[in-house]
Amino acid sequence: MKSSTGSHTGTGTWLVQRASALVLALALPALAITLVVATPTDYAGWQALFAPLWLRVLLLLAGAALGLHAWVGMRDIFMDYVHSTALRLALYLAVIVTLVGSVVWLAAILFGAAPWSVA
Amino acid sequence: MAGRPVFLNLLRIRLPVTGWVSILHRLSGALLFLAFPLGVWALSVSLSGEAGFRLMADRAAHPLARLVLVLLLWAFAHHFLAGLRHLALDVHWGVGLRRARQSSVAVLLASGLLALLAAWRLFA
Q: Beta-carbon neighbour count of residue A108 at 10 Å?
């Protein structure tokens, strides 16, 4: 019977951590440069910055990679320092809720048509 | 096991420089995890309309917010550079003790310098 709390999952998460790290290492500098070049000072400029589809796709991609990356990292930290299984699983749940919530919220901001708010 | 020596006076533990990069990589990663939902919230408010944009711009101008921003920029710079170092170690580049120490010092110096640069840009 396979253990539900460990073993054999190591190489998979190791690979997820590295792959998401590569996506972040490429996407975040590109997004940061775009922001610095534009340096919007008013709302219209800030809004226009997010108009191009490629930027929104790249930002959401980076957000999803960050979600996966942070999950593996926080899981590693809790595995090392939190030895009570019940508390560790509760912390895992809190991390997953936070990360999934953040990524879905980001997607809603970037791609939400918000039909309920249209008069 | 019960009688093994335990010595956890944090002020007297001497970490090698590679150990400092390692523990700070964890610490900065945890900080960035906490910053993620905050960043999404800030983006949401700033894109919600003229009033939301003004609110976030005013908040970002507060000295305390700028201090937090500098801390997060340090965390990002350190995590980014230490992460690149990790990827290099993964492909067996720079694994010798001398090279590993040199790259550790480089990561600490470069991230500290970037944080100082950010502080200078935001406060001066």
A: 13
Place of tokens 């900065």: B28
Closest listed residue to residue A74, CA positions, set A106, A102, A108, A109: A102
CATH topology of domain A10-112: 3 helical TM bundles of succinate and fumarate reductases (1.20.1300)
pLDDT per position as a tens digit, B8-59: 676 777 889 999 999 999 999 999 999 999 999 999 999 999 999 999 999 9
pTM for the whole structure: 0.88
Choose among B30, B33, B47: nearest Cβ to A109: B47
Question: Quick check: A19 pLDDT over 60?
Answer: yes
Tell me how many residue pairs between chain A and chain B have CB atoms under 8 A apart. 58
Closest CA to A30 of A1, A59, A53: A59
> Which chain A residue lies closest to B39 (C-alpha atoms)?
A102
Q: Whose structure tokens read 């533990």?
A: B13
Exposed / middle / buried, residue B101 (Cβ in 10 Å: 0-12, 13-18, 19+): middle
